[in-house]
Amino acid sequence: MSQPLRIAVAGLGTVGAGTVQLLAKQHELLLRRCGRALEVVAVSARDRNKDRGIDVAGYAWYDNAVQMAREAEADVVVELIGGEDGPALATCQAAIAAGKHIVTANKALLARHGTALAQAAEQAGVALNFEAAVAGGVPIVKALREALAGNVVDRVYGILNGTCNYILTEMRETGRSFDDVLAEAQALGFAEADPSTDVDGIDAAHKLSLLASLAFGTELAYDAVYVQGIRGVTPIDIEFAGELGYRIKLLGSARLTERGLEQRVHPCMVDTDKPIAHVDGVYNAVIAQGDFVEDTLYEGRGAGGGPTASAVVADLVDIARGQRVPTFSVPATSLNRATLLPMDRHRGAYYIRLNVLDQPGVIADISAAFRDEAVSIESMLQRGRSPTEGVPVVLTTHTTEEAQMRRALDQIAQLSAVVEPPHMIRIEEL
Amino acid sequence: MSQPLRIAVAGLGTVGAGTVQLLAKQHELLLRRCGRALEVVAVSARDRNKDRGIDVAGYAWYDNAVQMAREAEADVVVELIGGEDGPALATCQAAIAAGKHIVTANKALLARHGTALAQAAEQAGVALNFEAAVAGGVPIVKALREALAGNVVDRVYGILNGTCNYILTEMRETGRSFDDVLAEAQALGFAEADPSTDVDGIDAAHKLSLLASLAFGTELAYDAVYVQGIRGVTPIDIEFAGELGYRIKLLGSARLTERGLEQRVHPCMVDTDKPIAHVDGVYNAVIAQGDFVEDTLYEGRGAGGGPTASAVVADLVDIARGQRVPTFSVPATSLNRATLLPMDRHRGAYYIRLNVLDQPGVIADISAAFRDEAVSIESMLQRGRSPTEGVPVVLTTHTTEEAQMRRALDQIAQLSAVVEPPHMIRIEEL
């Protein structure tokens, strides 16, 4: 029997406390599975006396996580502090300097500093594991890094934020507005008091940038992710989506082609026949497409203490068993710098909803704007008739380039009979 | 840069040829991901001159796989011969004796000999990897063995046979009979000339026994799997299932409780709201439930040269990277021998379809039979009326024990107004 793996946990929020609980409850099971014990030896948080439902008396206590990373008699530091800089970054840097492995759930930190941290960790010969940073309990990091290693992965996409998926699911099922459902989600604890990281797509963008690096062997390029959240999704668009055979989902999608690296997070119209259309509520799902394996889908709870702790412990188990793979599938010094494809170059089909006064010639003017930009209309439907009040006109287009679409919409927005800015949602080809 | 991993491939059917092709095509990628080359050095098959779309001239050729396992200058033997005994078993035994790692896609072999082979491999210090044996390209073995290692897994279930799922999907979409769709599937190459291993549930049972061992740390107990295939599924049952809000799927389900180990493969009524109800065609999907992670779902192509080769190569990548975990999640000498729960003790709800002459008292007699066995009826519907020809009567029950249900059905089958043996499909609580 080998020496125990000694673990220092920085941050005792929901995930930190869940991790400590899991390691205590499954102590014997993990011993059997790993051939050695997984022992928490030290913990760090701001307030020692806060009740977290766990007994921290048996562990060395540090008020300062950086000091713990430097000084604790531990093999691994679990970073669950959060934040893209500050103490989280300093804790990881201190752990690497002290020759300790790192396990983190911090997507914001990795999206910003992942390439540099991975290079430093690999040079120091320590692991930088982050299964919990993407899609909670769903083992998509391991899948991309190990299970699909025999494939050229050309696309990875999915539902990466449980809060947004919960809100969109509730909006669809109840017909209520975004603001209404958000307020309820906040009351229920499914959304933060400041929801912008979730609902503006930032959290999903962090995760997408990690998936892209893992899948394609490219340097992290978080700043190049096109990001649009779900605040603009309205009940009427959800209703029209249903009529057209779609559901609206916030997807993160990354693709590497000879044109370059495309990374996008925005609401999408998804065909109801596709499995991803049926991933509802707080669930996350990721689809990875490889040249030999074809489509593989991974689904589960994307957040919460239990699922996220499960992912943290999976990373600890890998370290305990001596399993080591390059942080982003290939050595961090050999990650490629991809050509970045700007969103203007995105090609796809579009759903457009206009609010239009039903006056002679308006449809001709709209059609002319699309024709001028060589955008081909696939379908059009108009609801109601009123020359004095706006009525909805919904169009779908064939595949076109984003830049052309934007120019056509700018022209349409100028028309006097078009009484509010056009609503546009991209139709996703899956 | 380390030494290449030298690979000997036994069996050059679809999967063997696919594996050789993948390793050739992704040579540079695998070198980058593993830090060493993956080199095929030897191959074995019955007929050297058969055209397989691959050039075998560069590899040492063996007519005899056992001899190759013994003598080839290889680190790993990939066993893709198939069959539960014979040359496949002898090849694996020879590889272990020669200190070579094994990668296999052979579920029949492992279902029969997995515990003994794992013990021998672990004692010899070699890997016995079998990702490709369950659900083709879907990395469920790695998920159970590694990603969910922090969880007590209490249930694992799924769609484990693509041929059956294809047939059931076609039957549902077209209303055609089992025999008709099977014949078409055989013509299209989706089903074997002798389809019994697939359609009688044997292949799914092999896979289920492997999943149970991985999930629960129990010795393989293939002989204890309750197996019923899909030959008895009729278009009328599929139609009634739809009316009742269900789809019929062939599921394999394993559960470990204090009552014992339950392993079952049979057609199930699955609520259409559940994700598994939407896994159609040749796709496989497995759901694993852990106490911390809760539900996780893994879906992809369950067969075919590309997806299966992807899984074989994932196992080779693990070996190349020095990743080693116990074959069935815990050391093979410490696998538990579970109490086996017989099918008579299964508890669940049931769908029953009777063909009944519409005569006075018949419903009373049927109801009495259920009452005598304390089976509680949830719903009943009768279609059409005819005192001289049979009409269908469909019932669903509340949860009951299989033994009670069987006794009630035996009694009902004796009634003179019941003109064919009762049709029973279990309703699955997911």
Task: Give the largest chain-chain interface (CB within 8 Å).
Answer: A-B, 59 and 59 residues
Number of strands of chain A: 17
Identify the CATH class of the largest domain in chain A.
Alpha Beta
Helix-residue proportion of chain A: 25-40%
Distance between the first and last residues' Cα of chain A: 49 Å
CATH topology of the largest domain in chain A: Dihydrodipicolinate Reductase, domain 2
What is the number of domains of chain A? 3
CATH superfamily of the largest domain in chain A: Dihydrodipicolinate Reductase, domain 2
Concise description?
Chain A is built from 14 helices and 17 strands. By secondary structure, chain A is an alpha/beta fold. The first copy, chain A, folds into 3 domains: 5-133, Rossmann fold; 140-299, Dihydrodipicolinate Reductase, domain 2, CATH 3.30.360; 344-427, ACT domain (Alpha-Beta Plaits).
Structure write-up:
- 2 copies of one chain form a homodimer.
- The first copy, chain A, is α/β, with parallel strands linked by helices and 430 residues long.
- Chain A has 3 domains: 129 residues, NAD(P)-binding Rossmann-like Domain (Rossmann fold, 3-Layer(aba) Sandwich); 160 residues, Dihydrodipicolinate Reductase, domain 2, CATH 3.30.360; 84 residues, Alpha-Beta Plaits (2-Layer Sandwich).
- Helices cover 36% and strands 25% of the residues of chain A.
- In chain A, strands 7, 8, 9, 10, 11, 12, 13, 14, 15, 16 and 17 form an 11-stranded mixed sheet that branches. A 6-stranded parallel sheet of chain A has the order 3-2-1-4-5-6, sandwiched between helices.
- In chain A, helix 4 links the parallel strand 4 and strand 5.
- In chain A, helix 3 runs parallel beside helix 4 and helix 4 runs parallel beside helix 5.
- The longest helix of chain A is centred in the first third of the chain and has 18 residues.
- Chain A starts with a strand and ends with a strand.
- The mean pLDDT of chain A is 96.
- Strand 12 of chain A pairs antiparallel with strand 12 of chain B, so a sheet runs across the interface.
